[in-house]
Amino acid sequence: MEKISIAIDGPASSGKSTVAKILARDFDFIYVDTGAMYRAITFLAIKYQVAFSDESALAELTKKYPITFKQSVHGQLVFANGEEITQAIRQPDVTAAVSEVSAHAKVRNELVEAQRQLAEAGGIVMDGRDIGTTVLPEAEVKIFLVASVEERAQRRYKENQEKGIDMDFEAIKEAIAKRDYLDSHRSVSPLVQAADAQLVDTTGMSIDQVVTKIKEVICSKGF
Ligand code: DC
User: Fold this and answer.
1) How wide is the angle at C-alpha 113 spanned by C-alphas 67 and 49, nearest 5°?
2) Number of folded domains that form the chain
3) For the domain that residue 201 is a member of, what is the CATH number?
4) Is 11 one of the annotated binding-site residues?
């Protein structure tokens, strides 16, 4: 497999990270979860009591506490300045604030730069909201994954249960709809399908079916 870049964008819980990880494993590519980077800054803001509205102080956090990933037998681990925060960044307090933190241009500039460096050598599967439009506009393959709010809330509810996070289904649905709105209405790099991205609606599809569909798209582009 040629060392191409695959950009996977879409709203919260559309299945991006699940399929991105499978594709990265199958192609022996590097997987980069950009949402984890915005979550890490949000976690740091809570930890160091930086206001979610303080753009400059938040951008400083990204410089002071570098975010790194490490592969382990338990999957990908996330670190901020060496501290392991893999589970902490999935907690509801981080999820509730991450859209506000990620809307700041200065925060995005720092993280987009870091994401481009991670992708420099190619052979990458990167998921997020603005990968195809802003981070890697030259990516050879761009996928825009969507699914109904109802189905995404069901997936997140199940995931939470498995992780022991207790959250009401209706509250999850509401939180997803709110994040959809904030992520697609912010002024800097909003969530939007790139003109050259392939739309894949995963509502009612199994993970295997989505992976197969994306591999078909990759093949159809001659890779
Ligand atoms: O994919 P996720 O739910 O872990 O992402 C968390 C938040 O981070 C999401 O609500 C918006 C933001 N995000 C972003 O603005 N740009 C990205 N490339 C990835 C995530």
Assistant:
1) 45
2) 1
3) 3.40.50.300
4) yes
- Where b means 16+ CB within 10 Å and e means fewer, 159-186 reads ebeeeebeeeeeebbebbeebbebbeeb
Q: What is the CB neighbour count within 10 angstroms for residue 44? A: 23
User: Strand pairing partners for 8?
Assistant: 127, 143
222 labelled binding-site residue: no
Judge if the beta carbon of residue 102 lies within 6 A of ligand 1.
yes
Q: Is the CB of 98 under 6 A from ligand 1?
A: yes
CA-to-CA distance for 44 and 39, rounded, in angstroms? 9
Interval between CA 130 and ligand 1 midpoint (Å) = 9
Q: Which residue is closest in CA terms to ligand 1's atom 6?
A: 35
Q: Is 86 annotated as a binding residue?
A: no
For atom 15 of ligand 1, the residue with the nearest CA is 102
For residue 118, give its domain range: 5-220
pLDDT tens-place string over residues 59-101: 999 999 999 999 888 888 999 999 999 999 999 899 999 999 9
Q: Specify whether the CB–CB gap between 37 and 127 falls below 8 A.
A: no
CB 8 within 8 A of CB 130: no
Instruction: Say yes or no: CB of residue 112 within 6 Å of ligand 1.
Output: no
Helix, strand and coil percent figures for the chain, each rounded to 5: 50, 15, 30
Q: Are 191 and 183 in contact (CB under 8 A)?
A: yes
Q: For 19-66, what is each residue's pLDDT tens digit?
A: 999 999 999 999 999 999 999 999 999 999 999 999 999 999 999 999
